[in-house]
Structure formats: structure tokens, C-alpha cells
């Protein structure tokens, strides 16, 4: 469902900065995770009600810009207003222009920020605003704002892409039947949803085993689309690709023997969002190493008995070793779990350390 990325906050006049920040955090979760963080902004114009904006996902307007666009489209005077935002406004031109310049041009008097942006390309916005004579307050609900994007922040600090792992499986945790057949475990809607995820990432990785077995192209858009708008294919493993395979024929394919080597090469290629599609061993390795920032599970209502497990190689011998995840925030645009035809999608994020599965007290 399409949602408007900015609107007048109903029944909300005289908000404190903290209340406005809570609203900004709440609406930030309406965005979609990936190359960019979830960000919300609440504009408090002197002469009208609060206007909330959020960043819907990579390539769309930033939260501050969304709220200012709405104000300007509706004739709201932004001069002297306060901008309350969950992340330090960016100072760079990326997919969109610098939010600092939008804030300065709008005549904002005061900017209230929850947490700093560590991204080397975008950071430093607070100083830019101060230098322009705008009052800047930082640290309002910073713990909450950091928790909202804890995995994106970790990825940026580690200098690696944000990593989404995808699993399509039966209810008994298999991604293929015992004979290896796996084509249509999930239905049409789940498959087209998964294709939409492919279309928004910068790169798609598979293990060499999957590359050898399936000879995939790992493309996301029609073959007629510009080559550079396709995600970069990535193959990880120690065996070579056959020269006649689709991936070997693609000059953009990145190959690496190990996950670490792949992440280094991807960062150098400017990849900010990586999708790991399989097979079970590669997905298990990413999860086992704590590198799955987001886990998408497409769960089909079938049982495959002694089929092939959807992840392998995780050394879990006792419940305390379990890799625990929690359901990511839901919103009108992104219900979670989400029913897709006969299947169900779970959007998961790793549970914080110490938050474990203790079901039997
Ligand atoms: C903001 N407001 O709503 C977001 C910010 O490629 P771009 O132009 O979308 O820039 C992405 C970077 O900008 C992202 O990595 C992060 O550092 C920052 N995100 N900044 O002022 C927003 N989403
Ligand atoms: Zn920005």
C-alpha cells in the first residue's frame, strides 16, 4: 500500500520537543529498511499544527524534506519554525539533496536532533546548521533513535553494506524437498514480493553451490532495463564459476572466496544494501556471524518432511545458543507479519544480546 510520506499530525498542538520526537520516531517506522536508515521529522511551524514527514526508503525524499514539501505545498509559513528530527540532517547530495540546505532555505529557527549520523558521506549537518545561525539541540530520545536503526548504525560503523537475508521455506523449515526440488514452495504473491525486494537492493549474493545448481542471472528488472540499474550479482565460495554460466558472462558479477572478501569488495563498489538469497549454507553463515541485519522469511503452508533445511551450518546445540530474532515494527504500509496469498512473510531483526528465548520458566 502506498502511503503519503507527510501529513498534518491530527489533534496535536502545543507538543513538547520530546512529544514531537516520539511522534517522529513512531512515523519513522513507516519507512522501509535498507541502504538508508528509518527517519522521521516533525515540523512545528509557529502558525499551524505539526507536520510529520518520514523517509519511505532509499531513493525517496528524506524525512525533513518530506515535511517541508508538505508545508510548502499547503502554503504553511515555515519561517521561525522548529524542526524535530530523529537523525542529524544530512549535509550531502546523495540520491537526494542536502537536508541542511532545505532547513536553512525554509527559515527554520531551531532544529532538535535525537542522534548523530555516523555516515562519513552525510554527517556534520548539525555544525552546518549552527554555522548558519540555527539553534541546534541534540540528544532528545537518542537511545530510542539509536535502537530504531541499531543494525543500520552497526553496518555504517563497520564500513559494510546493510544486509538482508531471505529464506523461503515450509512450516517445517525446509527450502527444498528431499530430492532437491524447490521451484514453487511459495506462491505467486510471495514470489513477486521477493522480486520487489530484489529491485530495491544494490547487490544480490548467492553461494557457489546455488550458482552451480541453478545457473541464475540474479536480475531484478526486465532484461531491457539499463544494465547499471540491475543489482550487482555476487557469488561467494571457493569453487570457480563455469565460464558459460550467466553469472560468469555478466561483466558486473563480483566473485569472492569468503564473506569478508565479498563485503570488502562490495563496499569498494559502493554497495549499501546487500540481499543474500541462498543457499542454506551461505544464509546460515551470514546469520551465524551476526551479519543478518534483517531476515525475511517467506513461510509456505506446506510440510516437506525430511527435506533440505532452509539454513545449515548454525552450530546450535542448546537453546541458549539459539539465534533469536524479533518481529520488526509494523505499519499500514508494512504489516508484519504480512499475508501474501497462501503464504506469510515475517520481517525479523536480530534480538539484542541478552534477549533470548526463555519460554520455560
Ligand atoms: C536525513 N534525513 O530522512 C535520511 C537521512 O542517498 P540519500 O540522499 O538518500 O542519502 C542517504 C544518507 O543520508 C543515509 O546513508 C544517511 O546517512 C542519511 N539519511 N538523512 O537527513 C533522512 N534518511
Ligand atoms: Zn537528508
From TrEMBL:
SUPFAM superfamilies (UniProt xref): Cytidine deaminase-like (SSF53927), Dihydrofolate reductase-like (SSF53597)
Q: What are the record keywords, sorted?
A: Hydrolase, Metal-binding, Multifunctional enzyme, NADP, Oxidoreductase, Riboflavin biosynthesis, Zinc
Residue positions of the active site: 64
Q: Which reaction does it catalyse?
A: 5-amino-6-(5-phospho-D-ribitylamino)uracil + NADP(+) = 5-amino-6-(5-phospho-D-ribosylamino)uracil + NADPH + H(+); 2,5-diamino-6-hydroxy-4-(5-phosphoribosylamino)-pyrimidine + H2O + H(+) = 5-amino-6-(5-phospho-D-ribosylamino)uracil + NH4(+)
This protein's cofactor list reads: Zn(2+)
EC number(s) on file: 3.5.4.26, 1.1.1.193
Cofactor binding description: Binds 1 zinc ion.
InterPro entries in the record: CMP_dCMP_dom, Cytidine_deaminase-like, DHFR-like_dom_sf, Eubact_RibD, RibDG_C, Riboflavin_Biosynth_HTPR
Known Pfam families for this protein?
Answer: dCMP_cyt_deam_1, RibD_C
* Binding-site list for substrate: 182, 198, 218, 277
NCBIfam families referenced in this protein's UniProt entry, alphabetically: eubact_ribD (TIGR00326)
Name of the protein in question: Riboflavin biosynthesis protein RibD
Organism source for this protein?
Brevibacterium ravenspurgense
- Show the taxonomic lineage: Bacteria, Bacillati, Actinomycetota, Actinomycetes, Micrococcales
Q: Which gene encodes it?
A: ribD
